[in-house]
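Here is one chain, start to finish.
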Amino acid sequence: MRFKTFFNGIALSIGLGLAVYSQMNKNSQRASNKPTAVKQTREFEVWQLKPNSIYDGDTLRVVRDNEELKIRLCGLDAPEIGQPLGIEARDYLRSLVELGDGSLLLVPIEKDRYGRTVAEVYVQDSDESAVNLNMQMLRDGYAWHYERYSGNCPTQKEFILAEEVARKEGWGVWEGLHQPPWK
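Its structure:
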């Protein structure tokens, strides 16, 4: 059983690495703050986390120049603050953002009915790699894949695999009888 868990983790890590690699052109990103092409129609935008603005496990605020956006992480739904694991999900998202220097790479998808920008969000954790926050929240069991709203997410297929690992391992929202917020 441990070997299977180890193998699943390795396979997911390789898949996640390939997804990030295919979406980032790190050389042009480091050379300027101009957006880098992603999947020919998607672009990364460089923003800064607004201090103290991660309110829950799937929403945060970013700033750039005189602009401010409220971001909803694409394709997932984390427990609400009042639900079991709500505070833990928020704190875990905060810890992921702290891997970087406050800069976030956004792939904007659309606006939701509340005017939030729905996006995939990455934090650059070194010169060589970045962490997809959406996927990591799913992979570690701090959110559910929200299939109803993930159709436009560039890495939707990887979200399914990430959630599957957390579910099989019984991590986070998959440990016990947690109820998704949409229910």
